[in-house]
Amino acid sequence: MEVVQKRVAMLTNCEVLEFLKSQKKDEKSSEKLKMLNTVVRETRKYLHASPAATQNSDMIEQLLPKLKP
């Protein structure tokens, strides 16, 4: 993986959770990825306990205009 453009956009916790859910299928149990899988699992656990677990992209889209100054 390569960073193409730095800081182009921010991700919400909801978007991160959706991404991690989609990547779960691709988890491999190789020794090299063991620590990464631990971090991903703990991140998913944290996000499932946060409001991100009940949010969706429609809710985020409605919120963004309200946050503009």
Keywords:
69 residues; mainly alpha; 0% strand; RPC9; transcription
Biggest beta sheet summary = none
Distance between the termini: 35 Å
Q: Report the sheet-strand fraction.
A: under 5%
Helices and strands: which structural class? mainly alpha
Percent helix among the residues?
A: 40-55%
Rg over C-alpha atoms, rounded to the nearest angstrom: 15 Å
Q: Give the helices and strands as they follow along the chain.
A: HHH
Number of strands: 0
Mean pLDDT: 82
Which outline best applies? globular
Unreliable residue runs: none
- Per DSSP, the total helix count is 3
Keywords: DNA-directed RNA polymerase, Nucleus, Transcription
Family: Belongs to the eukaryotic RPC9 RNA polymerase subunit family.
Protein name: DNA-directed RNA polymerase III subunit RPC9
Subcellular location: Nucleus
